Amino acid sequence: MGSKNKLKRFKENETFSNVYQPKREDLVNSEYELKGQWNTSVFKNNNPLVLELGCGRGEYTVELAKKFPQKNFIGIDIKGARFWRGAKTAIENDISNAAFLRTQIELVDYAFAQNEVDEIWITFPDPQIKYKRTKHRMTNSDFLKRYKTILKPDGVVNLKTDSEFMHGYTLGLLHGEGHEVLYANHNVYKQEGSPEEVTSIQTYYESQYLEQNKPITYIRFKIK
């Protein structure tokens, strides 16, 4: 994407009513004004709140919002020029239960209050295969602790990935730390019984993976 195009998207994001872009220092050094107030201030209802972490273009956030109008969805990514597409689609189609937050995932517990979130989706994260990149894996122990803080006691996390490494790493970590694996599938499009929201929504890259016959894996779990 050209730099001019990026700048145009950044500018347009600033005009979107469904995009929130707090500065890092505002999150870390002070109590963020929307922390604990997302449903009240943004969605104006008390419906379940669902996050997509590392939402990329925002396709999954938007499609989940369309499929589940009785829930509120927030796509989170640091790359605003990417989720511009999802934010624009939501506005153009009057999807009022989808919003986007531009921030780093490691600041998620600064943006949301304890027990504020009902569910988390992590879709096709970078598996960070090299050992020295372990701290950046979005299902490592440190990230799970952050998620547990903001999730309700019965809240769940969904991991959908094309990376067998990420799938295996996460399963091993979950079992090793005593978390509750509710469902695990090594190939959601080949095995019966896969949850409908997992197979009926596909990202742009996911459709490419499927054309290459790459298996898509899925885990649903609770953090203890």
Automatic annotation (TrEMBL):
Quote the PANTHER family the UniProt record gives: 3-DEOXY-D-MANNO-OCTULOSONIC-ACID TRANSFERASE/TRNA GUANINE-N 7 - -METHYLTRANSFERASE, PENTACOTRIPEPTIDE-REPEAT REGION OF PRORP DOMAIN-CONTAINING PROTEIN
**Entry EC no(s):** 2.1.1.33
Q: Which gene encodes it?
A: trmB
Q: Which HAMAP family match?
A: tRNA_methyltr_TrmB
**What residues does S-adenosyl-L-methionine bind to?**
52, 77, 126
Q: Which UniProt keywords apply?
A: Methyltransferase, S-adenosyl-L-methionine, Transferase, tRNA processing
Identify this protein by name.
tRNA (guanine-N(7)-)-methyltransferase
Give the signal sequence positions. none
